[in-house]
Amino acid sequence: KEKVEAAKAVVSTQSTGINIDTHSTTYSEELYLELEYKTPYSYFHTFAGERCTVGLNFCSDVDANNFKMAIQGITIRNKKRKEKVEAANRPPPATAVVQSMPPAPMPVVPAPEVKLTKAEKKKKEKEEKKRKKKGITK
């Protein structure tokens, strides 16, 4: 785990407050990918905690900036990791699959049946009889 000391706190995937008199942990908060770290003032920072909104009041602007930079570095690194994992788990584009498949055969559609009137049927029968007499076939 990468640890950065800033503003008397250790930051990794968790934010931990340490009492400098007793050297004991006074506060601990897990940092999420969706963390919105806000700095309404250079010395006062806030973010949504697990149970409440957390406010950090720094005595020094330098410490406040160091802490902010540490938090931003960790959240950027974690977002890049998440994107890399998502990209590795993403299926290949659909065009690659389609290109490797043979083309689909064209469907065979039967020609529509032509209905003849009675007069047309009689005419057709006469023509067929004439052909038969002459020995002509289709």
Q: Could you walk me through the main structural features you see in this protein, from its secondary elements to its overall organization?
A:
With about 140 residues, the chain is of the alpha+beta class. The chain has three helices and seven strands, in the order βββββββααα. It has helices at about 60-90, 95-100, 120-135, and strands spanning about 5, 10, 15-20, 25-30, 40, 45-50, 55. Strand 5 (about 40) and strand 6 form a beta hairpin. The radius of gyration is 40 Å and the shape is rod-shaped. Residues about 1-15 have low confidence and may be disordered.
Structural topology:
Blueprint: E1 4-6, E2 9-11, E3 14-19, E4 24-30, E5 38-41, E6 44-48, E7 53-57, H1 61-89, H2 94-100, H3 118-134
Antiparallel strand pairs: 1-2, 2-3, 3-4, 5-6, 6-7
- How are the strands ordered across the major sheet? 1-2-3-4
Low-pLDDT runs of 5+ residues are 1-13
Count of individual beta strands: 7
* Rounded mean pLDDT score: 76
Report, as a whole number of angstroms, the end-to-end distance. 89 Å
Return the structural class: alpha+beta
> Tell me, what's the shape?
rod-shaped
Radius of gyration: 40 Å
Summarize this structure as a short list of keywords or feature phrases.
138 residues; three-stranded antiparallel beta sheet; rod-shaped
